Amino acid sequence: MGELTHFDAKGEAHMVDVGAKADTHRIAVAEGTIRMAPETFRLVRSGTAKKGDVIGIARIAAIMASKRTSDLIPLCHPIALTRVTVDFDLDDAASTVTCRARGECRGQTGVEMEALTAVQVGLLTIYDMLKAVDRGMTMTNIGLLEKAGGKSGHWLRDETNS
Question: Is residue 6 part of a domain?
């Protein structure tokens, strides 16, 4: 197998050939947070936002986005996800919602992009559903927390690689 790069011998972009890589069970976990005004947070917590169940709709949007990652990210391989879970943690004191997505597949390439896409679309959906009452929301700390499977093995975020 040649070097894994998105550039061919002429320096032009192309999709990396993963054909010689072994199928392995692969997982990735990503997370991100959206901060909002306390009044906006209360709408989410109470389920009384005018557009409906913010968390429920954000969960569906995140799962759907993870399945469409290769349509959104140039040169990203389409993969057959075997499982996607999306959870939300609400922090009353900070008026934040944290989205955590876990993607799994059995394949030749990882699911990091799918987990990261799920988190970002989940947070963007929350923003979209609440922007009429709070345009000052901010999304932060979006990143990969863990990946496992494949040649590079297991990686876990810690303070040294944050």
Answer: no
Under a CB-based contact definition with an 8 Å cutoff, are residues 130 and 44 in contact? yes
Residues 6+ apart with CB under 8 A from 29: 100, 101, 102, 115, 144, 145, 146, 147
Lowest mean pLDDT among 3-7, 49-53, 54-58, 123-127: 3-7
Give me the CATH number covering residue 69.
3.30.70.640
How much is the pTM?
A: 0.87
Is the model's pLDDT at 59 over the cut of 50?
yes
Q: Which domain holds residue 100?
A: 31-150
Binding residue positions for substrate: 75-77, 113-114
User: Which parts are annotated binding residues?
Assistant: 75-77, 113-114
Domain total in the chain: 1
Q: Which among 8, 89, 128, 158 is annotated as catalytic?
A: 128
- pLDDT of 107 reads 82
* Residue 92 bears catalytic tag: no
